[in-house]
Amino acid sequence: MISRLRPAVLAAAAVVVALLAGCTGAPQPHLVAGSAVRVGVDQPLTSANARTSPARGNATDSAVAGLIRDGFGWWGDDGEWVADRAFGSVDVVAEQPFTVRWTVSTGVAWSDGVPIDAADLLLAWAADSTRLTTPGLRVDDYVDPDTGRLSDDLPDDAVYFDGARSSGLEHSTATPTVGDDGRSITVVFDRPVTNLPALIAPVVPAHLAAEAALGTRHQRDGADAKAAVIAAIEGADAASLAPLARSWNSDWTVGDEVDARLAISSGPYALETVAADGSAVLRARDDYRGTRQPGVDELDLRVATDPLAAVKSFRDGDLDVVSPEPSADVAALLRDDPDLDPVFGSRGRVEHLELRASGSRSGVFDDPRVRRAFLAVVPRERIVAATAGEVDPDAEPVAASLFRPGASGMAAGSAAADLPDDPDVAAAKRLLRQAGESAPEVCVLFDPDRASRRTAFELLRDAAAKAGFVVQDCSTPDWASQLGSAGAYDAALFAWDTAGLPPEGLAEPFRSTSVANFTGFGDAESDRLLARIQSAAVDGDTAERDRLLAELETRVAQAAVTLPLSASPTIVLTSGAISGVVASPLTGGVLDAAWAWRPTADDGASG
Questions:
Q1: Edge to edge, what strands does the sheet with 184-188 contain?
Q2: Using one digit for the tens of pLDDT, what is the confidence trace for 540-599?
Q3: Are 386 and 459 a contacting pair, CB within 8 Å?
Q4: How open is the CA angle 10-14-18, to the nearest 5 degrees?
Q5: Which residues span the domain enclosing 552?
Q6: CATH assignment at residue 196
Q7: What is the pTM of this model?
């Protein structure tokens, strides 16, 4: 929740936060000493800084970062932000210009005892805002295409933090102001932005980055190092920023051992050991006094890239928790073993069909009647049954475009979209006659290497032919770079990854000026509606936000530019030794909320 400043209320809130932060002497109420859980992960741990480009695509990196770092809150499985008021507060201090202050509570510290303060927040801003990048630097020229990491060819004097390039912080108008309390920064934006608590994420300790990059001396309170970071950023000192950026980008990369830098934590767990294959052990911090109190003492993460082998390891008792990559083969293995009791869920990845309302290859979708006719023949039920349904027998078509499955507003979104599950060939033929089209050609773009997309295409092609459409295969391995390209295709089958997006973020592809708008949809009224959605989100008015999203859902459905299909399924297997494991739709997957796991009374530890 974001607050507008009201002195009396804030004074009371400050007392509560101070009381929470000051509770450092009580023992952890849930931690079971000696308990251990063995977790199969399908990607190796590569970095303790999950904000870098290569780490953002690694579910293990994302999950571990969430367990070893605290911040202003975290994402819940329903897509809503859960504020951590013990860590700090986020306040909108002015509307014109839009001005926001992030403040860390008194007493919040890294595990080495150094306070988390304005220097850490300022470094986080520098990393994700792109405001300090060397002018004219062509960053993509220095990215290794195989690893996604910055190459050693990046000039030593170049300043580039490999953070989130479009987080919202790029709309900052100037370097933030450090508060007199030394625990806050204030940022002025050129427009209102949402998702404020998640924008500033102190993932790299500023004092350790300065010691590594600038050679500042080590102190118990990190004062000199923090002062050096603040001076470099406030002064835009390229000579200091260049090595500081290199440290932020690479010094938290995980090798085959945990050095003192990687062992520092601010969250409920700390990284204890890593193996050459990227397996790792996380240890619950007995000195942690934050909000997310852990229950399991040791999380033993074991790399298991082969999903069938992972299931077999679980069955043999070598793993306590595993979430294998879903496939028909995995589903068959689960069905054949009555002793396995999988829990199915869905990821924040939604497969969908998009039509180009303008700039399409054939031009037939310029006419909304042809678009409506095409969407009317999409066999959603059959597509879902043949793709997600091969894994989860209860998989159903997603009911709305602007609400993720499980979201609080999905019922309203579903009613607003009113999407049919079964094809209506007669209606499609009638619309084509009205449009004067008898055999419109439709080129469909998709990834040919994904069997589920190939299946969806073939079912779509055959169903559309019954109404007269001539559907062509325009698949290419280079499909992602083709999205939005004028004249390249008419329709596209791909997935939006909504994990980590605020609910209002799902509306962004329908803004007329959005870089994510590949359909050409957009008009002044919809843009005004999007502005109201954003305003409601900034105000924390979730009811109004969802009402407006449902209103936009209706407009999108009437425009006939997109049709949601299915959410990517997940599978979780859990032994009787642990409770609280959920099939999370978030990027970190099953590990995302591992701090909330609890050993069962009859089996507190695994061997």
A1: 3-4, 88-94, 99-104, 184-188, 177-178
A2: 899 999 999 999 999 999 999 999 999 999 999 999 889 999 888 888 889 999 999 999
A3: yes
A4: 175
A5: 346-568
A6: 3.90.76.10
A7: 0.85
